[in-house]
Write a structure and sequence with these properties.
Helices cover 24% and strands 29% of the residues. It is globular and about 40 Å long. The relative contact order is 0.24.
Length: 125
């Protein structure tokens, strides 16, 4: 069983109930396709400019998270019914993931549900 923490972007929290992310996690699909038997331990919302992300990851790690997945909407956008790489809600996600991996000591994965065509989730840490 792999224990997962999720971090989403505040810019999408009032529009998205994370249904796709949670369904993908339960089915080991999309961004979780390489995760054997995933189990959600908790989730947080990242607040711009990301100052709470390290603390959120530390808390998720203390609850057992072995890896933190960052929601796809942070780095991709939907256009004409298709998810495209780039133009997501967070322009600093790569740097934020590196900071979280280093300071909280937990591996970070970029991607949950609705992955852009051909995209393979990137891992830091």
């Amino acid at each position: 069983m792999t224990k997962i923490g999720l971090i989403r972007c505040e810019k999408n929290e009032s529009r998205c109930p994370l249904t796709g992310c949670l369904v993908s996690l339960a089915a080991s699909a999309n961004g979780f396709a390489s995760v054997p038997d995933p189990e959600l331990v908790g989730l947080f919302t990242c607040r711009c400019p990301g100052d709470n992300a390290v603390n959120a990851a530390r808390i998720l790690k203390s609850k057992g998270a072995e890896v933190i997945h960052w929601c796809t909407c942070a780095f991709a956008r939907k256009a004409d019914g298709e998810w495209l790489l780039g133009g997501g809600f967070c322009g600093d996600l790569d740097a934020l993931m590196r900071r979280v991996a280093e300071e909280a000591g937990v591996r970070c994965v970029k991607g949950t549900a609705h992955l852009p065509k051909g995209y393979q989730p990137e891992t830091v840490g």
